[in-house]
Amino acid sequence: MARGSRVRRVARVTGIGGVFLRSRDPARLAAWYRDNLGVPMSEKGTVTFHWLDTATNEYPGTTTMALFAQDTKYIGEPHQRTMLNLRVDDLVSLMAKLKARGVEVLPDTEDSEFGLFGWCVDPEGNRIELWEPAEGM
Q1: Distance CA 132, CA 111 (A)
Q2: pLDDT for 104-127, tens place per residue?
Q3: What distance, in Å, lies between the first and last C-alpha atoms of the chain?
Q4: Where are the alpha helices (DSSP H) in the chain?
């Protein structure tokens, strides 16, 4: 069936297609994410993760969109309008590596039913949430 001839049942959102950040120096920031967090950013500052490559029945992979009150401190400084949440496979080791590299790592972590959370800050002041998902997430 041709793309334009699909039968459409409902006009709706089916998932999160991406997260986009403003940057004063996109190439430098892409290198920081690549070198410090292992995000396989291209030289142009883009990456696409394919859930089908990593999803299993036990670990289906999820992406969450959540809204917070204007006065929340969770996302970071008041001028920061968005926060990245990056899935990681070993939060404790990654945070130790980041500290050793001089990355600003926030001292608190959170252990919840969803997994283990920690935070760091990129060179442009954006708070990043690092998430080691709980078993089965």
Answers
A1: 10
A2: 999 999 999 989 999 999 999 999
A3: 34
A4: 26-37, 51-54, 91-100
What one-letter code names the amino acid at 113? E
Written as six digits, the tokens of 112 are 């919840």
Question: What DSSP string runs through 14-51?
Answer: -S--------SSHHHHHHHHHHHH-----TTS-----H
**CA dihedral for 68, 17, 19, 118, sign (positive or negative):** positive
Run means of pLDDT, 10 residues per run, the chain, 137 residues: 61 73 88 93 84 73 78 84 88 94 95 93 92 82
Length reported for the chain = 137
Residue holding tokens 């999803």? 55
* 3-state SS assignment for residue 89: coil
